[in-house]
Amino acid sequence: MQNDTQLPAKADEYGRKVSPYFNIESKEEKYQADKLFKRLRRKVGHAIGDYGMIEPEDKIMVCISGGKDSYAMLDLLLSIKRSAPIPFTLIPVHIEPGFPNTPEGVVEGHLKNVGLEYHILKRPVYEISKAKLSEGQRMCSICSRMRRGFLYSAARELGANKLALGHHRDDILATFFLNLFYSGIMKTMPPILRTDTDDLTVIRPLSYCRERDLTQLSKLKNYPILPKGLCGYGENEERAAMLRMIRAWEKEQPKRPDIIFKALKNVVPSHLLDRNLFDFSAISNGPKVK
Predict the structure, then answer these.
(1) What is the C-alpha separation between 127 and 99, in angstroms, rounded?
(2) CA distance 261 to 56
(3) What is the rounded distance in angstroms from the CA atom of residue 101 to the CA atom of residue 104?
(4) Domain coordinates in residue numbering, the chain
(5) Domain 9-236 = CATH 3.40.50.620
(6) What does the alpha-carbon distance between residue 49 and residue 162 come to, in Å, rounded to a whole number?
(7) Helix (H) or strand (E) holding 201
(8) Rounded to an integer, what distance in angstroms lies between the CA atom of residue 116 and that of residue 10?
């Protein structure tokens, strides 16, 4: 890979050896690790190309949660930036939500090693979310909205025009089934979208990546992952159930999640029931059935 003259020297050196290939001694294991990284990098590149996620001179705020997916996203985007034909900027940002017993300095220590200019922002996510909770209610949805709001504000303050979130293929499928089973809506997380205020673009570069590949990369890279459940409310049970369902399918019918994901990219409005997407009432007069 070529050197990126826009990168700080430390980030360029980190990016040069970002593949886990460089941390392994066994020849066979080195080969498998590099193969995994290249597969993920290729999938990120395809997602970026298919949906036009990155354009020249973009200033992209890379949202780092402290989980495996956001760490992997930063590594993969940095690797792509080093050889990309267009210039763009990556700014890692971590929101410290104020959860009790959160280990200090874990995320910042990793970002220092990466070498890019980064920002650690302390925001009262936990305090405000807890104050807004009704009795018996879980924090997940409120916390998610609070985090997103603070991230949008941070992007505007930093002059970023895009935010990169670490949602992967399995997250997209899980969201689809959550909406289908619990809300009666056929929608999911799109790979790219504009905010309601039309001033920021949200991108999901990991949209084509399987969670199991990201988990394997995380183990090989030994990312400093923050513990789950620091808020004290546990994980979102409904979402966890959807992810378990997808993992079970992968064991029983390995191609099923891929086929369902493909279906999300091949929608036939005339063979569904949404009158806002297809004018069924005027079908005799001309709307073509696909």
Answers:
(1) 8
(2) 29
(3) 9
(4) 9-236
(5) yes
(6) 16
(7) strand 201-203
(8) 8
